[in-house]
């Protein structure tokens, strides 16, 4: 582990993520409303594509920062067809927990963790193995009564080699888990086709 990661693993992880041109992964989110499974793609400076597997199998959402809109195809791949054009705040394109497509990237997640860090503490627990990979296990929690939002504690498992988050759990002020997100099949700087974000 580098000295920067020893000093502040969240800042070190964010620096690595911000240096990427893009990534592709499978996101599994478990919360009170069940499981969401999304094939997720990101490309700088903020293009996002989500191909839903569950609960709305086949639905596709693409956010383009140049338009500021989310295109939604509820019943399958775009294939040249025009989708619904919606604002990122529209309920139809927000997750069960209210997450927005335009604020769904890993950089935004880590900046949210940093906001909590500013009101509390960061602890590094013993490294663990996750799917055969060595992970740094980090807990960020706010001081009592100082949570800037609903989340009062984050637990993160960062890949020991890349510092990319592979699992993140969030908890409320009562210590109850709000959501657990697992990031699988991660690939860095993939070669996206010209039509991937521009159908």
TrEMBL record:
Record keywords: Protein transport, Signal, Transport
GO biological process, one term: protein transport
Superkingdom classification of source: Bacteria
Known partners and oligomeric status: Monomer.
Protein's recorded name: DUF1571 domain-containing protein
């Amino acid at each position: 582990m580098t000295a920067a990661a020893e000093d502040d693993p969240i800042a070190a992880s964010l620096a690595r993520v911000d240096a990427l041109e893009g990534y592709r992964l499978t996101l599994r989110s478990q919360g009170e409303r069940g499981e969401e499974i999304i094939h997720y793609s990101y490309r700088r400076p903020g293009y996002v594509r989500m191909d839903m597997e569950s609960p709305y199998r086949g639905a596709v959402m693409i956010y383009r920062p140049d338009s500021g809109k989310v295109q939604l195809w509820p019943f399958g791949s775009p294939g040249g067809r025009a989708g619904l054009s919606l604002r990122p705040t529209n309920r139809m394109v927000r997750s069960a927990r209210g997450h927005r497509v335009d604020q769904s990237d890993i950089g935004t997640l880590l900046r949210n963790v940093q906001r909590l860090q500013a009101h509390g503490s960061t602890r590094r627990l013993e490294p663990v193995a996750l799917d055969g990979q060595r992970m740094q296990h980090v807990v960020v929690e706010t001081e009592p009564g100082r949570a800037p939002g609903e989340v009062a504690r984050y637990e993160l498992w960062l890949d020991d080699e890349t510092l990319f988050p592979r699992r993140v759990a969030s908890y409320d002020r009562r210590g109850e888990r709000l959501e657990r997100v697992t990031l699988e099949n991660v690939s860095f700087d993939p070669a996206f086709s010209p039509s991937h974000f521009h159908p």
